[in-house]
Amino acid sequence: MSLMRRGSAFCIRRRVPKRFAAVKTRSEIWLNLHTDSETRANVEAPLIWVEQIAARETRLASDTEDAGMRFQAATELAQRRGYRYLTVEKVAALPRAELLERIETVDAQRSEPREAAALLGGVAEPNWARLAEGWAREARFFAGLLTLSFATIGIYPSS
Protein backbone atom coordinates (compact mmCIF):
# COMPACT_ATOMS: atom_id res chain seq x y z
CA MET A 1 0.00 0.00 0.00
CA SER A 2 1.41 3.31 -1.03
CA LEU A 3 0.92 6.17 1.44
CA MET A 4 1.32 9.57 -0.21
CA ARG A 5 0.85 13.21 0.70
CA ARG A 6 -1.40 15.27 -1.58
CA GLY A 7 -1.43 18.85 -0.46
CA SER A 8 -1.76 18.77 3.31
CA ALA A 9 -3.57 15.41 3.53
CA PHE A 10 -2.38 11.84 3.21
CA CYS A 11 -3.83 9.45 0.65
CA ILE A 12 -3.41 5.82 -0.17
CA ARG A 13 -2.87 4.58 -3.70
CA ARG A 14 -3.52 0.94 -4.51
CA ARG A 15 -3.95 -1.18 -7.56
CA VAL A 16 -7.48 -2.56 -7.85
CA PRO A 17 -7.36 -6.40 -7.77
CA LYS A 18 -8.19 -7.94 -11.17
CA ARG A 19 -11.14 -9.90 -9.80
CA PHE A 20 -13.01 -6.58 -9.43
CA ALA A 21 -12.64 -5.61 -13.11
CA ALA A 22 -16.37 -6.26 -13.62
CA VAL A 23 -17.36 -3.70 -10.98
CA LYS A 24 -14.47 -1.23 -11.08
CA THR A 25 -13.12 0.07 -14.39
CA ARG A 26 -10.08 1.91 -13.04
CA SER A 27 -6.86 -0.03 -12.54
CA GLU A 28 -5.83 1.93 -9.43
CA ILE A 29 -7.65 3.81 -6.72
CA TRP A 30 -6.71 6.87 -4.68
CA LEU A 31 -8.38 7.36 -1.30
CA ASN A 32 -8.05 10.56 0.72
CA LEU A 33 -7.48 9.77 4.40
CA HIS A 34 -8.47 13.30 5.50
CA THR A 35 -5.56 13.66 7.88
CA ASP A 36 -2.24 15.48 7.88
CA SER A 37 -0.78 13.13 10.53
CA GLU A 38 1.41 10.40 9.09
CA THR A 39 0.99 8.30 12.23
CA ARG A 40 -2.80 8.44 11.99
CA ALA A 41 -2.63 7.77 8.24
CA ASN A 42 -0.55 4.63 8.83
CA VAL A 43 -3.16 3.37 11.30
CA GLU A 44 -6.22 4.22 9.18
CA ALA A 45 -4.97 3.19 5.75
CA PRO A 46 -5.22 -0.61 6.22
CA LEU A 47 -8.66 -0.31 7.85
CA ILE A 48 -10.01 1.83 5.03
CA TRP A 49 -8.57 -0.51 2.41
CA VAL A 50 -10.21 -3.54 4.04
CA GLU A 51 -13.53 -1.66 4.00
CA GLN A 52 -13.04 -0.83 0.31
CA ILE A 53 -12.34 -4.48 -0.54
CA ALA A 54 -15.42 -5.62 1.40
CA ALA A 55 -17.59 -3.10 -0.47
CA ARG A 56 -16.23 -4.30 -3.80
CA GLU A 57 -16.85 -7.93 -2.83
CA THR A 58 -20.46 -7.02 -2.14
CA ARG A 59 -20.75 -5.16 -5.46
CA LEU A 60 -19.29 -8.16 -7.25
CA ALA A 61 -21.85 -10.41 -5.56
CA SER A 62 -24.64 -8.09 -6.70
CA ASP A 63 -23.55 -8.54 -10.33
CA THR A 64 -25.58 -11.73 -10.76
CA GLU A 65 -28.83 -13.00 -12.21
CA ASP A 66 -29.66 -14.82 -8.94
CA ALA A 67 -32.39 -12.71 -7.32
CA GLY A 68 -31.62 -13.95 -3.81
CA MET A 69 -27.91 -13.14 -4.06
CA ARG A 70 -28.61 -9.73 -5.66
CA PHE A 71 -31.06 -8.86 -2.87
CA GLN A 72 -28.61 -10.00 -0.17
CA ALA A 73 -25.83 -7.93 -1.76
CA ALA A 74 -28.09 -4.84 -1.85
CA THR A 75 -28.95 -5.37 1.82
CA GLU A 76 -25.23 -5.61 2.71
CA LEU A 77 -24.37 -2.51 0.68
CA ALA A 78 -27.10 -0.49 2.42
CA GLN A 79 -25.88 -1.69 5.84
CA ARG A 80 -22.29 -0.82 4.94
CA ARG A 81 -23.47 2.75 4.27
CA GLY A 82 -25.32 2.86 7.59
CA TYR A 83 -28.85 2.24 6.32
CA ARG A 84 -31.39 -0.56 6.44
CA TYR A 85 -32.45 -1.85 3.03
CA LEU A 86 -35.98 -0.75 2.18
CA THR A 87 -38.06 -1.44 -0.92
CA VAL A 88 -38.65 1.49 -3.24
CA GLU A 89 -42.22 1.83 -1.91
CA LYS A 90 -40.95 2.12 1.66
CA VAL A 91 -38.20 4.55 0.65
CA ALA A 92 -40.80 6.74 -1.08
CA ALA A 93 -42.92 6.71 2.10
CA LEU A 94 -40.02 7.86 4.34
CA PRO A 95 -40.25 11.26 6.01
CA ARG A 96 -38.79 13.92 3.72
CA ALA A 97 -35.65 14.43 5.84
CA GLU A 98 -34.75 10.72 5.80
CA LEU A 99 -35.44 10.42 2.08
CA LEU A 100 -33.25 13.45 1.33
CA GLU A 101 -30.50 12.03 3.55
CA ARG A 102 -30.43 8.83 1.47
CA ILE A 103 -30.43 10.79 -1.77
CA GLU A 104 -27.63 13.05 -0.53
CA THR A 105 -25.58 10.00 0.50
CA VAL A 106 -25.90 8.61 -3.02
CA ASP A 107 -24.96 11.99 -4.50
CA ALA A 108 -22.09 12.77 -2.08
CA GLN A 109 -20.43 9.40 -2.63
CA ARG A 110 -20.93 9.55 -6.40
CA SER A 111 -22.41 6.10 -5.99
CA GLU A 112 -22.40 3.49 -8.70
CA PRO A 113 -25.82 2.28 -9.89
CA ARG A 114 -25.70 -0.82 -7.65
CA GLU A 115 -25.08 1.28 -4.55
CA ALA A 116 -27.77 3.77 -5.49
CA ALA A 117 -30.20 0.89 -5.99
CA ALA A 118 -29.28 -0.50 -2.56
CA LEU A 119 -29.90 2.81 -0.80
CA LEU A 120 -33.01 3.80 -2.74
CA GLY A 121 -34.77 0.41 -2.90
CA GLY A 122 -34.06 -0.37 -6.52
CA VAL A 123 -33.49 -4.12 -6.04
CA ALA A 124 -36.63 -6.20 -6.15
CA GLU A 125 -37.16 -8.51 -3.21
CA PRO A 126 -37.06 -12.08 -4.52
CA ASN A 127 -40.11 -14.28 -4.48
CA TRP A 128 -38.99 -16.41 -1.54
CA ALA A 129 -41.91 -18.81 -1.91
CA ARG A 130 -40.91 -19.62 -5.50
CA LEU A 131 -37.25 -20.01 -4.47
CA ALA A 132 -38.22 -22.33 -1.60
CA GLU A 133 -40.37 -24.38 -3.98
CA GLY A 134 -37.41 -24.76 -6.35
CA TRP A 135 -35.12 -25.80 -3.51
CA ALA A 136 -37.67 -28.36 -2.30
CA ARG A 137 -37.97 -29.76 -5.85
CA GLU A 138 -34.16 -30.09 -6.06
CA ALA A 139 -34.04 -31.78 -2.62
CA ARG A 140 -36.69 -34.33 -3.70
CA PHE A 141 -34.76 -35.00 -6.91
CA PHE A 142 -31.48 -35.61 -5.07
CA ALA A 143 -33.22 -37.75 -2.43
CA GLY A 144 -34.66 -39.90 -5.23
CA LEU A 145 -31.27 -40.10 -6.92
CA LEU A 146 -29.65 -41.14 -3.63
CA THR A 147 -32.32 -43.81 -3.03
CA LEU A 148 -31.80 -45.14 -6.55
CA SER A 149 -28.03 -45.22 -6.01
CA PHE A 150 -28.44 -47.16 -2.75
CA ALA A 151 -30.85 -49.57 -4.40
CA THR A 152 -28.33 -50.18 -7.20
CA ILE A 153 -25.73 -51.37 -4.70
CA GLY A 154 -28.24 -53.36 -2.66
CA ILE A 155 -28.81 -50.99 0.25
CA TYR A 156 -32.44 -50.18 0.90
CA PRO A 157 -33.17 -47.32 3.31
CA SER A 158 -35.91 -48.02 5.80
CA SER A 159 -38.92 -45.74 5.52
TrEMBL record:
Residues 3-51 form the DUF6538 domain. Pfam families: DUF6538. This is DUF6538 domain-containing protein.
